[in-house]
Amino acid sequence: MKWLYVEELRNHIGEEVELRGWVWNMRSSGKIHFVQFRDGTGFVQVVVEESSVDPKVFESASKLRIESSVIIRGKVIEDKRSPYGVEIHASDVTPIQIPDEPYPISKKDHGIDFLMSYRHLWLRSRRQFHILKIRNAILTAIRQFYKARNFTLIDTPIFTGAIGETAGNLFELDYFDYGKVYLTQTGQLYLEAACMAFGKVYNLGPTFRAEKSKTRRHLIEFWMHEAEVAYYEHEDNLKLQEELVSYIVKYVLEHAKDNLLALGRDISKLEKVEPPFERITYDEAIELLQKNGLNVQWGDDFGGDEETIIASNFEKPVFVTHYPRKVKAFYMQPDPKRPEVVRCADLLAPEGYGEIIGGSQRIHDYQLLLERLEEFNLPKEKYQWYLDLRKWGSVPHSGFGLGIERTVAWICGLEHIREAIPFARTLYRIYP
Ligand code: 4AD
Ligand code: MG
Predict the structure, then answer these.
(1) Is the CB of residue 226 below 6 angstroms from any atom belonging to ligand 1?
(2) Which of 27, 97, 372, 409 has the most beta carbons within 10 angstroms of its beta carbon?
(3) Residue ranges of the domains in the chain?
(4) Distance separating alpha carbons of residues 348 and 174, to the nearest angstrom
């Protein structure tokens, strides 16, 4: 008999098949067991009827509990009410393991701390299934986007000898005789080296920030996708970003629509996401915030509240450009007409999800970069390799970093970023 996955069943109506998976719920009426079955690709109802199976089979099915593992054989019957269009009428039930204890995650409302402590089991629930399937689609979309544009994937290191972004939230470690090194905050500096070798490059990997703030947008370990392109200036950079984000949303709508609907996501909001995105300057953003009654002054950085208010004025993601250089990282290219602001942009997601991308044009002049390193008190010797890039064949170049979990949270419509990653690392949690 053929072993099939739930996602394949629709094309096998009327056939006898084998399914291997788990019981996520169960209900019995004495003569019929309704087994809610899952196998990692989907969920389906299995009906075990006393009158139509061997008594031993019915007896085996009676022993099943929540999260028993089980192999089921049966006939695929069309069922229009099911999201997969089918249910299974069982002929054979083989339990693989039957738990001795009741499953800790029951239907009653558990607090979030409880659920996070059982994250290793919580992953099996339907909501988490749909979220992480969408995450999977987002990561696939990113890879496809760059494949179609012939970018080269460059895997940047996790251990770094120099600060990549900001001194405020670094994880320090001892590295043999070398002394202090850091867990990477960004692969950007290495992508800058790589873009001078490969022209257009990207990465996708974990990054680390010792964020002391406990917000619904911050993780300690999060995944970032970054891109860097030689000869790209500010406006080229924004175009690439709006095309990428629109591609991701479109891909998810095409390939994971059922998952979005299962989460109750309002899809009409996502369908509006296509280029071009509006651009407003930091100056305009300040004005907009002041009009909304916020007490912000030119020179202040924006936090979650400011970002939410700005974004609420737009239906699509919006770029905020040209921040004061004092609130941004050392490597950003000053605007030639106004050196107190830099050629950068944050992309703010709609519906209160805040910044999903940070990017900029980079300083390509050796002397100016050297001045910035001094201004930021960064040790020149640790950055000699980075300065070298400005000594040989330096060109204007630009890039950006997209936070994967923030993007997942926005596309799924999650309240908190901790559900957007399989095993979240937050200020107070590293278990499981
Ligand atoms: O804006 P950030 O700090 O930019 C950089 O690191 C640049 N070096 C990227 C580049 O130009 N190559 O971080 C980029 C994105 C943010 O927009 C946000 O989406 C996400 O990374 N991010 C976080 N996500 C979750 N938890 C945190 N603590 C995050 N910090 C940043
Ligand atoms: Mg940022």
Answers:
(1) yes
(2) 409
(3) 2-97, 119-420
(4) 36
Q: Is 399's C-beta closer than 6 angstroms to any atom of ligand 1?
A: yes
Rounded distance from Cα 359 to ligand 1 centre (Å)? 9
What would the pLDDT profile of 99-121 be if each residue is shown by its tens digit?
A: 999 999 987 889 999 999 999 99
DSSP secondary structure of 80-108: TTSTTSEEEEEEEEEEEE--SS--S--SS
Q: How many CB atoms lie within 10 A of CB 431?
A: 8
Helix ranges (DSSP H) in 292-403: 304-311, 366-375, 384-388
Average pLDDT over residues 145-160: 98
**Which tokens in the block code for residue 244?**
């990428």
pLDDT of residue 42: 96
d(CA 67, CA 228): 46
Per-residue confidence (pLDDT) for residue 83, from 0 to 100: 77
Decide if 70 contacts 64 (C-beta within 8 A): yes
Distance 355 CA to ligand 2 centre (A): 7
In whole angstroms, what is the distance from residue 256 CA to residue 248 CA? 11
CB neighbourhood size of 319 (10 A)? 23
Tell me which of 170, 185, 186 to substitute to probe ligand 1's pocket, judged by most ligand atoms within 8 Å of the beta carbon. 186
Q: Select from 2.40.50.140, 3.40.190.10, 3.30.420.40, 3.40.50.300 the CATH code of 2-97.
A: 2.40.50.140
Q: What is the assigned CATH class of domain 119-420?
A: alpha beta
Q: Whose CA is nearest to atom 29 of ligand 1?
A: 218
- The answer to whether the CB of 359 is under 6 A from ligand 1 is yes
Ligand closest to the CA atom of residue 400: 1
Residue 310 has pLDDT above 80, yes or no: yes
The rounded distance, in Å, linking the Cα atoms of 344 and 361 is: 6
Outline where DSSP puts E strands in 129-267. 152-153, 159-160, 172-175, 179-183, 200-208, 221-230
Report how far residue 285's alpha carbon sits from residue 344's, in angstroms, rounded to the nearest whole number. Answer: 14
For the record, the structure tokens of 110 come out as 């558990």
Q: What is the percent of the chain with per-residue pLDDT over 70, rounded to a whole number?
A: 100
